[in-house]
Specification:
By secondary structure, the protein is of the alpha+beta class. It is 40% helix and 35% strand. It is built from 3 helices and 4 strands, in the order βαββααβ. Helix 1 runs antiparallel to helix 3.
């Protein structure tokens, strides 16, 4: 059963736009850098409905096993670790559909 891995991000106010752009490119690189990713999208939130989260990521994976493998893949760990250094908040939600 496919899994949607969603991440909501709120960057710290002192993080420059260039560094945010670099983080978004890092997230986009997971689409080709991690073999378990079926589809990936990332973008800036344009509403006020996300409790201050400014960006979102959606990753489609084949199943729960692929999600577990994605979580520990070296490229994902590298991108996520760097992002967390500049994030005030990171929320994740995973569901099967």
């Amino acid at each position: 059963m496919p899994v949607n891995h969603m991440v909501w991000i709120r960057f710290r106010a002192d993080v420059p736009a260039e560094r945010i752009a670099a983080h978004l490119e890092g997230l986009r690189s997971l689409a080709t850098g991690v073999p378990f990713v079926r589809d990936l999208s990332v973008g800036r939130n344009f509403t006020d409905r996300a409790n201050g989260c400014t960006h979102g990521l959606s990753v489609i994976l084949d199943d729960r096993a692929a999600l577990a493998a994605y979580a520990v893949h070296p490229r994902h760990v590298e991108v996520a670790t760097a992002l967390r250094r500049d994030a005030a908040e990171v929320l994740a939600l995973d569901y099967e559909y």
